[in-house]
Design brief:
Helices cover 81% and strands 0% of the residues. The protein is mainly alpha-helical. Helix 1 runs parallel beside helix 3, helix 2 runs antiparallel to helix 3 and helix 4 packs antiparallel against helix 5. The longest helix is centred in the C-terminal third of the chain and has 18 residues. The N and C termini lie far apart (40 Å).
Length: 101
């Protein structure tokens, strides 16, 4: 975690996903937050977008729509800033589907 700044945020993403699989909710939240923070601090906009997207899926799976929506909006903003229009359109389409359910 004190290693290469180019990959440390990936470690946090992997640890968050592993925590989700093992039912360690507190650890999952901490690692998603760390992934978002480190990718932001080190200038990896696309990875921050991914971390927010995965955090959104996690929170929604837990029934927490407030944080799920917060993270998907952050993800969308990151993808938009990065210029990944196709991903933004995909998120928008998925959000419309979720609103109808």
């Amino acid at each position: 975690k004190n290693g290469n700044v180019n990959v440390v945020h990936y470690l946090f993403i992997l640890e968050a996903e592993l925590a989700v699989l093992n039912g360690k909710n507190k650890k999952a939240k901490e690692n998603f937050n760390a992934a978002i923070t480190t990718s932001s601090r080190n200038g990896f906009l696309h990875d921050r977008a991914l971390a927010h997207e995965l955090a959104s899926a996690y929170f929604r799976s837990q029934g927490d729509d407030y944080w799920g929506n917060y993270h998907i909006e952050c993800s969308r903003a990151c993808y938009q800033e990065w210029g990944c229009i196709g991903k933004v359109e995909q998120l928008d389409a998925n959000m419309k589907i979720d609103d109808k359910e």
